[in-house]
Write the structure tokens for this entry.
Amino acid sequence: MVGKVLLKAKSALTRDELADLLIGLADKIQNGRVTLSDGANTVDMQLPESLKVDIEVEDDVKPARIKRQLEIEIEWRVDEAGQPALDQGGSAGLTIS
């Protein structure tokens, strides 16, 4: 089955703007519901108690530059109605210091 993109957005932000975005997202995740909008599309998501999180830091090395990328991917299963399916048990494997 092919995936369907529900929303995709790119922005250039200052460090403070990014921090505000991530703090707001963290608050919504903690409350169990996240709504994202790009102006034309809105995606409302109810989150389960447990989620799968993949974090990757990568350097893309080219002749004249090195581009560093931090990816945070959060996954969970949903049913046909988009509601969380069974929780994804997991354990913490990364800390932020």
